[in-house]
Amino acid sequence: MAFARSKKTYDxxxxxxxxxxxxxxxxxxxxxxxxxxxxxxxxxDKDAAIEAVxxxxxxxxxxxxxxxxxxxxxxxxDGNKFGRQRVIIDLKIKGVHADVIEKTVSATYExxxxxxxxxxxxxxxxxxxxxxxxxxNPEALKKSQKETARVFRMLxxxxxxxxxxxxxxxxxNVEDELLGALQEESES
Length: 188
Fold this sequence. Notes:
Strand content: under 5%
Helix content: 55-70%
Distance between the termini: 39 Å
């Protein structure tokens, strides 16, 4: 069952208060806040009221996409241990401009060793090295290949480059044939 939409109507001052409260709950990009405000019932010209609120928030420095992107990418890198590509995708979804994303993510990930970040991500997620299996035991080999593929896909979703993932899996003595198949799968 869907929730009923609010019947409350906002004048520009109330809309501003609502926007400040929304920013108090969590940081948002300009595009996210605009989407949120468009869901409200506004007295008069809705678009003009929203633009006035956004402009006022920018002037007061409550709303800044560059600062948002910088903070967001730092939190995702340091807290979640995500790779660069995941942060870029997340910021695009949040409506941050491509130029801002490129500058802030480049600054955040400058000098970061992607391989060690990926290893930290695996430690954080408590992912263990896939068990070694020989061709003599096909069932164990299949299970090991499934575990390896799961780890590979997990690291791709976390935003790490294929080359870095392959390097980590080679250190785990994964067969080159399986690594080639996984790399082809990720490129298609």
